[in-house]
Amino acid sequence: MGGAFLLAYLAYLVCLVLMLPAFGLTLFVSALLLFAAGPRDGWSVLIQVLAFFGAGIEDPLRYGWRILAFFAVLGFVLGAGAIAPLRIPAFYGLAVVGASCALFCLYAAAQQDRYNVINALIVLSPSFVGMAACLWCAAKFRV
Fold first, then answer.
1. What span, in angstroms and rounded, lies between the C-alpha atoms of 11 and 90?
2. What's the predicted TM-score (pTM) here?
3. Which of 70, 40, 41 is nearest to 55 (CA)?
4. How far is CA 5 from the centre of its chain?
5. Residues 97, 113: Cα–Cα separation, whole Å
6. Residue 4 near residue 74, CB atoms below 8 Å
7. Who contacts 97 (Cβ-Cβ below 8 Å, separation ≥6)?
8. Which of 3, 12, 51, 127 is the most exposed place for a label (fewest CB within 10 A)?
9. pLDDT in 10s for each residue of the chain, 143 residues
């Protein structure tokens, strides 16, 4: 029983690592779009996000829950594959989030020209493999 658990969790972590290009490129494109929007519409959003978490550093007794919630979500994403009842939804959820990030990146690339779409497809190719691996692992590791 322990070997199957370890195998399923390692498969989840491999799928998560394969999704990193989609997550990273989405974050990068979003930051560029916010910077391009200018100081009134874009930069203020970035500053507000930083201020949201910065308040937890300044006054941890009152706003520290924000940082704790961030790390709790991060821990849940990293550990969801280890929880047996959540294993299959974690694989499917990871595939859905990765697909939505990839579609956002491809849409943003399509707004420029076809060469950017080709470049995005090349960069996102590990994420496409990760999405297929998530769906395969969800079918393989059924409880």
1. 11
2. 0.83
3. 70
4. 23
5. 25
6. no
7. 19
8. 3
9. 567 778 888 999 999 999 999 999 999 998 888 888 877 777 788 788 888 888 888 888 898 899 999 999 998 888 888 888 888 999 999 999 999 999 999 999 999 999 999 999 999 999 999 999 999 999 998 85
